[in-house]
Amino acid sequence: MKSILAGAAIATLIGAIGVAQNPVSSGYTGLNQTWESCEEMHDSYVKRFVSAEGFGMSRMMTPHMRDLSGVLDLGRTRYSIESIELIGLLQQPQPAVYVPARHDSGLKLSTGHRAPTTFETSALASFRAGKEIASQNAPGALRCIGAVRASDACLGCHEDKKRGDLLGAFTYRLKALPQ
Predict the structure, then answer these.
(1) Cα–Cα distance measured from residue 83 to residue 68, given in angstroms and rounded to the nearest whole number
(2) What is the pLDDT, as a whole number, of residue 104?
(3) By the 8 A CB rule, do 98 and 111 touch?
(4) Are the CB atoms for 142 and 136 separated by under 8 Å?
(5) What is the pTM of this model?
(6) Degrees (nearest 5) of the Cα angle 168, 158, 13?
(7) CA quadruple 56, 40, 171, 101: dihedral positive or negative?
């Protein structure tokens, strides 16, 4: 069973990379949303992730997840998304932040990973205690991290988990837009 799932994951990843290298040619035109809170933005990306084809990191490479066209409008300041990364809790002994590897021709098949920052580690601890969102302001920038919890759609593959279990998180880097 694991070899079938692994084969399906590789096939899905290869397909997702082909589409992700040129989202426009695949018919994807972007969502260009405006959110009023980190929670609203995060909910949008969780829905995109759950509805995407594939498994784990391969879902991060689909056009809907690579679409960073939205704006977070907090009233006084508007932010654009610079990056979204998946913090995985299930594949490595310690939490790992998965970073799609890039080169001139687009996304490579492999992904790199890095250790969580101090802020990400603190956010994960708060998510284990039931919190859903953490944010950190800096001059001209904002960091948001949101919990990814098991939903009914997740339990088919994550059979050892139950609804609401913490599976990972998304970490968002945003930059302030000119006024």
Answers:
(1) 7
(2) 53
(3) yes
(4) yes
(5) 0.79
(6) 75
(7) positive
